[in-house]
Amino acid sequence: MRLIDLSSAVDATSYEPDPVVHEVLSPREGAEHMSAEMRTHFGIDFDPDELPDGEFLSLDRLTLTSHTGTHVDAPSHYGSRAGYGDGVPKHIDRMPLEWFCNPGIVLDLTDAPTGAVGPERLEKEFGRIGRTPAPLDIVLLNTGASARAGTPEYFTEFAGLDGPAVELLLDLGVRVIGTDAFSLDAPFTDIIDRYRRTGDRSVLWPAHFTGRDREYCQVERLANLDALPAPYGFTVVCFPVKIAGAGAGWTRAVAMVDE
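Structure for Cyclase family protein, as requested:
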């Protein structure tokens, strides 16, 4: 079995609208931190110089959103109410793990311009690859956006899905839709421009807002989709980090390919 990493890194050196702060305590600073914590919490004095090389363990502190890097959006991210079940959308820690380890299908949307792709474009791609998604398949959208990761253009130039396109996938039984772009919706700039020109409220984040009435998850900011050897015949694993009460959780998304 070959593993293909489909994840983008959390990188404080890359451009982000919500900047990542990454502070590193060196092994020496970790020793001093441990000594101070022992004194504060347990009343124990311990000289860090007694440690080999005067070092303990390094420690990373990060400030970031749960939507930084490759992550899974939970239904609670889409709004405060749900038009299904008990009316309360689930947080990421309550999502069924069975959704996040399933056969994958990658759709090539690299020729789509910035904006929203409709269901007819997805159906054309189903015909090209000779397969329609089955229930619980994980559908991945290769928009080509990952090539711009780390730049401002990554957040303004990519193709998303419109509402009917999302509905099509959900009607087929898909519950996890992934994209290499910043969002499963079109860029914010494109959405706002189309809304101001048309006054049509249906263009306002339809992929996300569809999730208010139909339970599903998005995996955003994937990478390396070009490395998949075929449009299907692989398994996607994208378990989200279990953050209590959160609308999203980071994931190390991987494709497993039998060889």
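The mean pLDDT is 97.
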